[in-house]
Write a structure and sequence with these properties.
The structure holds two protein chains of two kinds. Chain A is an alpha+beta fold. Chain A contains 24 helices and 23 strands. Chain B has two domains: 74 residues, no CATH class; 228 residues, MetI-like fold (Orthogonal Bundle). In chain B, α10 runs antiparallel to α11. The chains are: A alpha+beta, B mainly alpha.
């Protein structure tokens, strides 16, 4: 009886082992890594992914390697590569002629033509169209753009503007219904008045009825789902399911012979750092972005000897932003919670080295005030005299205390009290999905509490959630830990100012604005200022003041000398206000598998130490490393990373 | 007239005879109504409204003013937050009655119905296998350990049951993935099948499905088995002292027969309701487990929707799971009343 039961168990064990061996020996069942394939992570819709990137669904690798712009720029270095455009000629008469590559094709084999470029700009009407007064197809492979005379960008900026949009994503034949409809609406819309500088794509200002029709048309366009993924890029869709997406090199592509891999394979929605680190250590990934804390980084490199960790310059600084809308009642009068002295006092409270080290050990500490531009960019674009004139603060608790007392605060029983005599208790709000900012927020709150300012933390689960709350007058906290200076697009100096004063920072700081049309007192303000920032700043030479909004308009049209003068004025003016306390300029980290990606730069460095600490800033005499490192960041340079440009240019 | 009276009499008798079922059905329908209203209120009371959140996203992405983005968002979602609440509720109810559980805020191609159609089979595949194995193993272990509760083996198993019942399921999942996926590399750490295979009813694809589901199923089994064991132990303890057990022993029946036919069968009765609820909950997937294994199921879609503030998807999945749980409870109550007539009569 006993023997029979043992026999049964042995048989069962044998069966289990046989099946396991069967599984393990059958590649078809278990999958696994294949040669000539690049492995990375990306996010796409688990179900319901649309076949065009303008449809509002996440498209993962397709967004990175399948959809091409006319020109690809590398964020952080501004290096540009011609993609769909073979060449671009900027003429003195305010026009630009774009010559499309003769061999540029859609993934279904159709020719990529000039009408497709026109279709993209008309249907999407993004930033670039505000600088255009017209766009037309001259012939199948030639596009002519006429720029608005009032705000015509300089040639350098024109290239960058053309490099922002993924133009190879709207095929006219496929989206004809909606493209024709919007062209008709725009044709009927009245032209903007002469000298108008507000929003007017193609120099037209639509009325309410036309605007409603245009939005309804756009909604229909985004909701449409074609039966193949509309793209022209170097890789096309090979297979996709809920968790894996595989792209294959596009044999029709103009750079096919220069692509570094035949396949790109990505895994979907893996956001848990532990899982990402596990995949890196076990060799499942050839690329992953991010810089973990030092111990973890070294552990990962130790576990997988094929990995190296590069860092590149990130055109963004992180720190505190004050919420100027917060007030305190003193003798029945509302006064700003953070007055000039208090804000200046905050500059001295923090040991920024410690915060920077905790947030990202490879970041660059800054002891200057908020400048609306990352320090490395500011140093590059400002005159030496202006850069040197910026105040360099320090960690000085006694100086901080002096200034806070001058500002009306007092310290009682170890805790700081406000002008109203009440104990201060602040909430520091941050985007919890950003690792280094989350760490910086914790270190900042700890230092504030240690200094005697009671501080609690509030985390949002995404940047959008943080921003939604931070810009509100009702839900916002006293302080935010976020990007104090950031360039979200090309590094030309204007990008940072746009982030600070048109898109994000000014809303979080709650800077004052002129009344908008219909609001009290709007009639006393010139029409061109309605609803705009009403901030006035001192000029760099301190001989006068200027309205920030005046300097913001027409930034793209300035020549180099005018630009430097403007940058000097804006940055020194902003820094004098102490609207924020930046702690560090961030760096972007990337793991690469040296066995898969065989032409990584600076082998001499990573053979000596696989944790490469050298970060080119762009202020070096020789910019080779700056560009080479910048290109390694796939989320900054997209498909340009996987094209062997050296060989491509050799053979042209 | 006589015929009508006879019909009414029969109807009354029919209603009286099945009063228990109709009462339960009424309660289920009321609960369902409450769930529909609550899920609608959930969206209406989201801070800042759904349109605001979407407009914010559009404003940032498209660099247009918040006012412009608000109009665009209203157009794209075909939803007007300023409309009277009853009008909005009637639109919502109308869509539900047409079988439309909702569409993603951000992507019109992503509907809750599509999510259920694509991902529910995967969730059910893993959960049903795990539930079956853990129930069978758990009840067997539970009944045997209670029968021989003084033996060394039973005590050791008891120790395991207590410990594993206290360990959260995601810890088990993390241990399994770290050891068997990352360190040993025996099993994949993510996915539902080899991406190079075409899905179909063939042996290679089925084996691939089983291979990729092995770790998620194991994690479920490890964490659920102890629950069923404990439930079984509690129930079996009450049965042990019954006369029919003693009578079976006195008749000299083999131990295996007593455990299987007398102890286990009777002790399992109260577990039926619990099993039915587990079956219903299974439809909602296991958000944490599926996220850890990156297994594409309802639970993962649910947690992603929460993370992305995709309120309509959250609402739709919640409603679906609630309906299933209510339905399954109704079925369980009915079955239970059929098995045990005392319950039916007490109503």
């Amino acid at each position: 009886m006993i023997r029979r039961s043992i026999l049964k168990k042995l048989l069962l064990l044998t069966a289990v082992l046989s099946v396991s061996f069967g599984f393990y020996s059958c590649d078809e069942i278990i999958g696994g890594k294949t040669v000539d394939t690049f492995y990375m992570l990306a996010n796409w819709e688990t179900v319901g992914m649309k076949n065009h990137i303008n449809g509002g669904s996440q498209a993962g690798l397709l967004n990175i390697f399948s959809v091409e712009p006319l020109i690809q720029y590398v964020r952080s270095t501004d290096e540009i590569y011609y993609m769909l455009a073979e060449s671009v000629d900027h003429n003195d008469d305010g026009t630009t002629i774009i010559h499309l590559r003769p061999e540029a094709r859609w993934h279904n084999g159709d020719d990529y033509v000039a009408q497709d470029v026109v279709a993209y700009y008309y249907i999407n009407q993004l930033e670039a169209t505000n600088y255009m007064s017209a766009i037309e197809a001259i012939d199948d492979k030639t596009v002519k753009i006429t720029w608005k005379a009032s705000i015509e960008p300089n040639d350098n900026v024109k290239n960058l503007i053309l490099a922002v949009d993924p133009v190879g994503s709207v095929k006219y034949d496929v989206f004809k219904t909606w493209v024709d409809a919007i062209i008709e609406i725009m044709d009927e819309a009245p032209a903007m008045p002469e000298g108008y500088t507000g929003w007017a794509p193609f120099g037209k200002i639509v009325n309410d009825v036309q605007e409603t029709a245009a939005y309804a048309n756009y909604a229909e366009f985004t909701n449409y789902n074609p039966d193949w993924f509309i793209a022209t890029g170097p890789y096309k869709l090979y297979s996709v399911n809920e968790t894996d997406m595989i792209l294959i090199a596009n044999e029709d592509h103009w750079a096919y012979e220069y692509l570094k891999f035949k396949y790109v394979h990505s895994y979907n929605h893996i956001t848990d750092p532990t899982q990402i680190y596990g995949m890196l250590m076990s060799g499942q990934l050839d690329y992953a972005g991010g810089t973990p804390i030092l111990d973890t980084l070294e552990q990962i490199l130790l576990a997988n000897e094929n990995l190296v960790h590069f860092k590149t310059n990130d055109p963004g600084a992180c720190g505190l932003l004050f919420n100027l809308a917060k007030t305190v009642s003193v003798d029945g009068v509302r006064r700003p919670l953070f007055n000039d002295k208090i804000r200046e006092g905050f500059e001295y409270i923090f040991n920024r080295d410690d915060i920077a080290f905790i947030a990202n050990p490879y970041s660059k500490v800054t002891y200057r005030s908020m400048m609306a531009m990352a320090p490395s960019d500011a140093e590059k674009y400002m005159s030496e005299e202006a850069w040197d004139s910026l105040t360099v603060y320090s960690h000085d608790a006694s100086r901080a205390a002096e200034l806070l007392i001058e500002g009306g605060w007092s310290k009682v029983d170890g805790w700081w009290h406000g002008e109203d005599g009440e104990k201060l208790s602040f909430t520091l709000h941050f985007d919890g999905s950003n690792d280094h900012q989350a760490r910086a927020a914790q270190a900042t709150a700890a230092q504030m509490n240690e200094f005697g300012i009671e501080t609690k933390l509030k985390s949002s689960s995404s940047w959008n959630d943080w921003f939604g709350s931070a810009q509100s007058y009702v839900w916002s906290s006293e302080l935010s830990l976020t990007w104090t200076d950031l360039n979200m697009s090309f590094s030309y100096p204007t990008g940072s100012f746009v982030y600070a004063f048109r898109d994000v920072s000014f809303k979080v700081i709650h800077l004052p604005k002129f009344p908008a049309f219909g609001e009290a007192g709007y009639e006393e303000v010139p029409e061109k200022y309605w609803g705009d920032l009403s901030v006035e700043l001192p000029t760099f030479d301190r001989t006068g003041t200027f309205l920030l909004i005046d300097k913001m308009q027409g930034l793209y049209s300035l020549d180099d000398a005018e630009m430097q003068e403007t940058v000097d004025d804006i940055i020194t003016g902003v820094a004098s206000q102490n609207w924020g306390v930046p702690f560090y300029q961030n760096s972007c980290g990337m793991f690469y598998n040296t066995k898969a990606f065989t032409d990584l730069p600076r082998k001499d460095l990573w053979e000596a130490d696989r944790n490469i600490e050298y970060i080119p800033s762009g202020n070096e005499d020789d910019l080779t490393d700056f560009y080479a490192f910048g290109r390694l960041n796939i989320h900054f340079s997209y498909a340009a990373t996987l094209i062997d440009w050296e060989r491509f240019f050799e053979n042209q | 007239m006589e015929k009508f009276k006879s019909f009414l009499r029969h109807l009354r008798m029919f209603l009286f005879k099945y009063r228990y079922f109709f009462m339960k059905l009424g309660i289920a329908l009321l609960t369902l109504g409450a769930v529909v209203i609550l899920s609608f209120i959930l969206i209406v009371n989201m801070p800042g409204t759904v349109i605001d959140a979407f407009a914010m996203q559009l404003s940032v992405e498209r660099r247009i003013s918040l006012d412009q983005a608000y109009i665009l968002a209203t157009q794209m979602l075909n939803y007007d937050p300023d409309a009277p609440i009853l009008e909005r509720f009637s639109v919502y109810l109308g869509q539900l009655l047409q079988g439309n559980l909702g569409v993603s805020i951000k992507n019109s191609a992503k509907s809750v119905n599509l999510i259920l159609r694509e991902l529910l089979p995967r969730t059910l595949f893993v959960s049903s296998i795990a539930l079956t194995i853990s129930f069978l193993l758990g009840t067997t272990v539970g009944s045997r350990t209670i029968w021989r509760r003084k033996s060394f083996g039973a005590r050791a198993l008891d120790g395991y049951i207590v410990v594993s019942n206290a360990v959260p399921d995601y810890i088990v999942a993390l241990i399994l993935i770290t050891v068997f996926a990352f360190n040993l590399g025996w099993f994949p750490n993510q996915g539902a099948y080899n991406a190079l295979l075409d899905p179909g009813f063939n042996i290679i694809f089925i084996l691939s499905l089983l291979y990729f589901a092995f770790l998620p199923i194991s994690a479920h089994v490890f964490s659920q088995m102890s629950f069923w064991s404990m439930q079984m132990q509690g129930s079996a303890l009450g049965v042990l002292g019954e006369d029919y057990i003693n009578a079976a022993r006195a008749r000299g029946l083999p131990e295996k027969i007593i455990i299987r036919k007398y102890l286990k069968r009777n002790a399992m009765l109260p577990l039926v309701t619990q099993l039915a609820i587990s079956f219903g909950v299974m439809f909602g997937g296991a958000p944490l487990m599926e996220s850890i294994f990156n297994y594409p199921g309802i639970g993962q879609a649910f947690s992603q929707a929460i993370a992305e503030r995709d309120y309509y998807v959250v609402q739709g999945i919640l409603l679906f799971v609630s309906v299933i749980v209510i339905g399954v409870n109704l079925v369980a109550d009915t079955i239970y009343s059929l098995i045990d007539p005392r319950i039916r009569r007490s109503a």
